Structure formats: C-alpha cells, structure tokens
C-alpha cells in the first residue's frame, strides 16, 4: 500500500456496459452485434456438445472456414484453390463436407 498523499491505485475499467466491470457475456453480445448479420432471433448454442463443435458448425453455416477458396477471396496467396488431395474440384466447404467422396 502506498502512503503518498493523493495516490490512487491503478485500476482497469471496462466500458462495455455501465457497471465498468468486464463480463464475458457483455463482450460476447458486442462481438455478435458487430460481426453477425442482424437476425430476428439470437443464436442458440447447443450446450450439450463442446463449444468447438458449436463454433465449427457456425463457421461452416456462414462460410467462414479457412478453405483455400475463402483464403484466396480474402487476398491470402495460396498456390492453388484446388483441393490438394483429389485435385478434382475447388476446395470450398461444399466440396470438403458434402461432395468429396472421402467426406461421404
């Protein structure tokens, strides 16, 4: 404890809401408002499965997986956008999870 007159200890404040205290739920709400398209209903996560499965499903449904096509679309240089395993189609979510013979 410091005994300097007028000393105020450093503190972190989060201005997400009026409480000035950081809460994960408040931050999640802000992230969803900024990044997700406006939906009439909230996203409903399935609490009986691991969060990484929920997130992967969300990424897949919103075409956000880092496939070669998505990386190329974002300006990230890849040697090819074709599937490196079969070389028969473009590597996108449709090919990886539905059309690809190994996926079925």
Written overview of the protein:
This is Lipase, GDSL. InterPro entries: RVT-Znf. It holds the Pfam family zf-RVT. Residues 22-101 form the Reverse transcriptase zinc-binding domain. The chain folds into 2 domains: 4-35, no CATH class; 51-98, no CATH class. The chain has 4 helices and no strands. It has helices spanning 24-35, 51-61, 68-73, 93-99. The model has no long low-confidence stretch (mean pLDDT 80).
Query: Radius of gyration, Cα only, in angstroms?
Result: 22 Å
Q: So what's the overall shape?
A: elongated
Question: pLDDT below 50 for ≥5 consecutive residues: which ranges?
Answer: none
Number of strands: 0
Mean pLDDT comes to 80
Percent helix, as a range, is 25-40%
Distance between the termini: 65 Å
The fraction of residues in strands falls at under 5%
Protein name: Lipase, GDSL
InterPro entries: RVT-Znf
Domain Reverse transcriptase zinc-binding: 22-101
Organism: Artemisia annua
